[in-house]
């Protein structure tokens, strides 16, 4: 079993980050193949995925397979940086640059010299920091806060986000030029519910890992427990699975984990397709029917409604939000399109009907 573990997995217990990633599911194997293709290059990479899917672990795997593997890997959570501290943390500062700056300090970019810097939650950076990051990507140099001297750096940038950056660009919250600079290579990490083949191997890994930590024999999963793990939709992804296994280990009896030993939230998760590039997961020749069969097997809730919403939204965007053109494209009446747009929250009921033809 191919597994990627976070080097500080025990310190992640109280976070939402994934501590391990396996590549047993066919979709995960395709992801690993794609990682192996892009890792040796110097291209910037944008990783997209829900919270807890293992974005940092994938970034570490890209670094490990690159020519920079023996150089630093520096992970920075941009969401945890305040606007006032972000510049000093990322780019460093000179003595006297601000109150409390009693000495020169290198930033995370200089700390990653020769290696890779991973910028998680990149969408949370302020516009002013986005400008400076764009300059680094363009010029390969950094200017410390309080200095007028630039320093050359050699760093590969991998960024990650769990938000729709394209929407942030349209809203004016994220620079379009920076977005395309980051997205030289991009990959979308599927949520755990869409890579079912990884669930039981991951569960077994966590059982063995926590059993060793607790100094006890590893229990086994009952058939009902195994079925529940595969059927559950995992809105919290790998982190939720790890927590569920940890809890089950603490209360299970007679060396057997039963289905009722898990503490699962029961939250439902909506299917989201329009913002994801899933091309790396689709084998050559796979048609729409085969993709639908996979979704049927996964038991996605309200699939018909969700597909209708996705198709309607995609057609509406393709037609530049013209209702008449959208209706013609889908072969239905304008009244039906308008009703669907309102139904799926894509149009206010008070919005006047577009009559442009």
Q: Level of helix content? A: 40-55%
Radius of gyration using CA atoms only: 23 Å
Could you give the order of the helices and strands? EEHEHEHHEHEEEHHEHEHHEHHHH
* Sequence of strands across the biggest β-sheet: 4-5-8-3-9
Number of helical runs? 14
Descriptive notes:
The longest helix is centred in the middle third of the chain and has 16 residues, at 199-214. This protein has helices at residues 26-38, 55-64, 83-91, 108-111, 127-139, 165-170, 176-182, 199-214, 223-231, 237-251, 288-298, 303-318, 323-330, 334-343, and strands at 3-5, 20-22, 45-48, 73-77, 116-120, 141-143, 150-152, 156-161, 185-188, 220-221, 256-257. It has 3 domains: 39-188, P-loop containing nucleotide triphosphate hydrolases (Rossmann fold, 3-Layer(aba) Sandwich), CATH 3.40.50; 195-261, Helicase, Ruva Protein, domain 3; 302-357, no CATH class. The chain has a 5-stranded parallel beta sheet. Strands 1-2 form a two-stranded antiparallel sheet. It is built from 14 helices and 11 strands. 34% of the residues are buried. Helices cover 41% and strands 11% of the residues. Helix 13 crosses helix 14. By secondary structure, the chain is an alpha/beta fold. The radius of gyration is 23 Å and the shape is globular.
